[in-house]
């Protein structure tokens, strides 16, 4: 594989990836570290209440997008997760800038990505629990 120094990869995950404590995190972490030498940069952005690692491994950038863990804010967040079209996921700031490839690490991020204005992205549907065509948030046009 030849290097693509002008291309960066942003992996968006619904939970903590570093340290890789489960199969999904290990898969995302493994893929990110494997492609890092060939790209201009790799960032992992996770929806997580845990602190991001102070020194991310393997030359990765790791950012945690905080989710409320207590009180009324937690209740509002859980209500949005259960009832909202984007399942409570909101991407802060711009995502999918020029020369950035965006990979969603879960179909749960599908609608949030669309609402964030992402027209194109890669969906990592490995071990997906249902056919994406039948995913309740997919529109008829998506199917």
Q: What is the secondary structure topology, with strand pairs?
A:
Layout: E1 4-13, H1 23-35, E2 39-47, E3 61-65, H2 71-83, E4 100-104, H3 110-115, E5 122-123
Parallel strand pairs: 1-2, 1-4, 2-3, 4-5
Helical/strand content category: alpha/beta
* Helix proportion: 10-25%
| Overall pLDDT score | 80
Low-confidence parts? none
User: Count of DSSP helices?
Assistant: 3
The ordered string of helix (H) and strand (E) elements is EHEEHEHE
How far is the N terminus from the C terminus?
A: 33 Å
Radius of gyration using CA atoms only: 15 Å
> Biggest β-sheet: count, sense, barrel?
5 strands, parallel
Overall morphology: globular
Count of strand segments? 5
User: Strand sequence of the main sheet, in spatial order?
Assistant: 3-2-1-4-5
Beta-strand content: 15-25%
Notable features of this structure?
3 helices; 22% helix; globular; alpha/beta; 5-stranded parallel beta sheet; 143 residues
Describe the structure.
This protein has a five-stranded parallel sheet, covered by helices on one side. The termini are far apart. The protein is built from three helices and five strands. The model has no long low-confidence stretch (mean pLDDT 80). Helix 3 links the parallel strand 4 and strand 5. 23% of the residues are buried. It is globular, with a radius of gyration of 15 Å. With 143 residues, the protein is α/β, with parallel strands linked by helices. The longest helix has 13 residues, at 23-35. Helices cover 22% and strands 22% of the residues. The chain has helices spanning 23-35, 71-83, 110-115, and strands spanning 4-13, 39-47, 61-65, 100-104, 122-123.
């Amino acid at each position: 594989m030849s290097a693509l120094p002008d291309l960066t990869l942003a992996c968006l995950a619904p939970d903590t990836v570093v340290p890789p404590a489960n199969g999904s995190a290990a898969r995302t972490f493994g893929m990110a570290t494997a492609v890092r030498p060939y790209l201009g940069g790799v960032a992992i952005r996770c929806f997580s209440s845990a602190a991001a690692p102070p020194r991310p491994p393997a030359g990765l950038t790791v950012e945690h997008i905080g989710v409320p863990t207590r009180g009324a804010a937690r209740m509002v967040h859980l209500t949005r997760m259960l009832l909202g079209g984007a399942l409570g996921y909101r991407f802060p700031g711009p995502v999918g800038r020029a020369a950035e490839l965006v990979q969603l690490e879960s179909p749960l991020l599908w609608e949030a990505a669309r609402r964030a204005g992402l027209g194109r992205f890669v969906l990592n549907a490995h071990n997906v629990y249902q056919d994406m065509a039948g995913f309740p948030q997919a529109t008829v046009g998506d199917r």
